[in-house]
Design goal:
Chain A is of the alpha/beta class. Chain A is built from 6 helices and 10 strands. Helices cover about 30% and strands about 30% of the residues of chain A. By secondary structure, chain B is of the alpha+beta class. Classes of the chains: A alpha/beta, B alpha+beta.
Chain lengths: ~220, ~400
């Protein structure tokens, strides 16, 4: 479950104070796929970062999978990300000197997994990148890199996936494959918060939020 | 296609990263190697310089003279030694003094006499006594002379037109000349005729007596202006009935040279180490800056800050270990090939390695800390939000 109550985030950039999020409250139930929309600069990435514990809110409370993220120390947030929450970034953020399979295996260094290698192979096959097993990110297409990043996120079977514009840099075909994978995860009970600045017509979200200039302006639940 | 059989490990990741940033890796290792090599070379060169000076100064002779308290210094200067004398045992007393600030002692019985109408200073000596508890080598200007033999000063030998193998009669006793001493260009050194102390005591009818002790002031960490006072006090504390007359120019030259060498060596070392530290800090900072996105990604994946810090420290420690070893041997090799190999090197290879390995590793890890901590103290979101390099 993802629960934000009156969450604000502001930061100082030069002499200017930027209000990235302004008193946002939202709730995503366990197993739901929530779509977070909004124009560029509306605060979507900030919201994802707060949910992942990658930044701290200026005000308000955040509960992610029963964790009070707003009150957690850095080490506790790291442990939460390792065990329960996975993040998928628009820019993939793969480690350039590791091969595709090594990148996917990275989370196995933070949590104890019984058979990480067969699991990584299974995910690569599922995402159609098994032929890239020993390739470095620089040798892969954008779509393959994003699928690799998704495989990395799924390695530990997280309870929550926070996906920040995962299809932003992909062609239509790759984007469809990524969204289909996320939809499969939803069907298995994973809670997903998917950020997109454009309409996603290949996925049917359980709930949709719209941000505008840091404020939650629209919330629509599937009937 | 090769399927992996083993999971990823931190060491595997570390090696991959080091290879990926190999130029930085190489530069870091080279900087530490240069710093360690410089330290070893400068230490060796300093030791070589001190050795060279020590030999030079020893050849210039002793720099202190201990004479009886009631002896007339003006008469000594005029080569008249027929005044008061003191027991020969004073040499042993000085050498056994625990706080004595001198380390080589030669008891002398000297008397001005004539040989074939030429004035010479007959000097009886019994070899050299080194301060108790030290392992110092004997001074090259102290002699062990067998009975019946004489070592002749250069000016005396020239005046008497004698050479090695000839005989000379001193106070009615015949001696074989077995050595002509090198010319010092100073009186009375060049007109001395050295014989065994016992024979001098017999000839002068002064058994068990001497009238001067030559000594060499120690290399003590004292200012030049204080050294004479302190050496004098340390000797007079053991033998209250003597006076200490330093040969100022020799004593101060030796002392000042040593102090100056130590300061120059220290200044160069400190300068070199500061430059190396700054370079290492810069390279680590550059490496961490280049890797900051990866640090952000690792944190986003749930790596703890401590684990990331350890990764960087392990890498730096590995650099430092390799560099300390190569620096130690490169520094020593440079010293040897440049012909400056000291007689008694300060740092022999194995102890140097045992000393430098932990010091270098700790120092390198310390320099690595600020840039890594600088990234770890920021929110991961800030780092990931920056434009990718």
């Amino acid at each position: 479950m993802i629960l934000l109550d009156n969450v604000s985030k502001q930061f100082v950039r030069g002499k200017e104070t930027v209000f990235a999020l302004d008193a946002v409250s939202l709730r995503v139930e366990q197993g739901q796929l929530a779509l977070l929309c909004g124009a560029s600069g509306s605060g979507k990435t900030t919201l994802i970062n707060l949910c992942a514990g990658l930044a701290s809110p200026s005000k308000g409370t955040l509960h992610i999978a029963d964790n009070k993220v707003h009150a957690m120390r850095q080490a506790e947030r790291a442990a939460m990300r390792a065990q329960q929450v996975a993040v998928v970034f628009q820019l993939f953020h793969l480690i350039p000197y590791l091969s595709a399979v090594e990148n996917i295996l990275l989370p196995s260094l933070t949590v104890s997994l019984s058979d990480p290698v067969p699991r990584a192979m299974q995910l690569m096959e599922q995402l159609g990148i098994v032929h890239r097993i020993n390739h470095r990110p620089g040798e892969m297409s954008a779509g393959e890199r994003q699928r690799c990043a998704i495989a990395r996120a799924l390695l530990t079977d997280p309870a929550i996936i926070l996906a920040d514009e995962p299809t932003g840099n992909l062609d239509k075909e790759s984007a469809a494959m990524v969204l289909e994978t996320l939809d499969t995860c939803r069907k298995k009970g994973t809670t997903i918060l998917l950020v997109s600045h454009q309409a996603v017509d290949t996925i049917n979200p359980d709930i949709m939020f719209q941000l505008d200039h840091g404020k939650l302006v629209k919330e629509e639940s599937k009937p | 296609m090769t399927f992996p059989t083993k999971t990823l490990s931190f060491h595997h990741m570390l090696l991959r990263e080091m290879w990926h940033s190999r130029w930085n890796t190489l530069a870091c290792i080279l900087v530490i190697t240069a710093a360690v090599g410089l330290y070893v070379t400068l230490s060796d060169m300093g030791a070589a310089s001190v050795d060279a000076t020590r030999v030079l100064m020893k050849e210039m002779g002793f720099n202190l003279q201990v004479i009886p308290n009631n002896a007339d210094l003006a008469r000594y200067q005029a080569l008249d030694y027929d005044g008061p004398d003191m027991p020969e045992s004073y040499v042993e007393n000085l050498a056994a003094g625990s706080r004595i600030m001198a380390q080589h002692f030669v008891g002398k019985l000297q008397h001005t006499t004539e040989i074939s109408g030429y004035k010479v200073v007959l000097t009886g000596v019994l070899g050299q006594t080194v301060r108790t508890g030290t392992t110092k080598a004997p001074m090259p200007t102290s002699y062990v002379i067998p009975r019946g033999e004489a070592f002749m000063g250069a000016a005396a030998a020239r005046s008497l037109k004698t050479n090695v193998g000839e005989k000379v009669v001193i106070l009615g006793r015949e001696f074989s000349i077995t050595r002509i001493l090198p010319e010092y260009g100073a009186i009375p050194e060049d007109i001395r005729v050295f014989i065994h102390l016992r024979e001098a005591q017999e000839l002068l009818e002064r058994p068990g007596r001497i009238n001067a002790i030559d000594a060499l002031a120690c290399q003590c960490p004292v200012d030049a202006k204080d050294i004479v006072t302190q050496v004098r006090e340390s000797i007079e504390a053991i033998l209250p009935d003597v006076q200490v007359e330093p040969y100022y120019s020799l004593l101060l030259a030796r002392h000042n040279q040593r102090i100056m060498m130590e300061r120059i060596q220290l200044a160069i070392l400190v300068g070199a180490l500061i430059v190396a530290a700054a370079a290492l800090w810069g390279l680590t900072y550059q490496n961490v800056s280049a890797r900051r996105h990866e640090i952000g990604v690792l944190r986003a994946l749930g790596f703890s800050d401590i684990r990331i810090l350890i990764l960087f420290l392990e890498k730096t420690a590995l650099y430092a270990l390799v560099a300390a070893m190569s620096g130690c041997f490169a520094g020593r090799a440079f010293t040897i090939f440049s012909g400056l190999n000291p007689i008694s090197p300060v740092l022999t290879p194995i102890p140097a390695l045992l000393f430098l390995l932990p010091i270098t590793t700790l120092a390198a890890m310390l320099f690595c800390l600020p840039p890594v901590m600088g990234v770890l103290l920021r929110d991961p979101a800030d780092i990931l939000g920056e434009t990718l390099p």
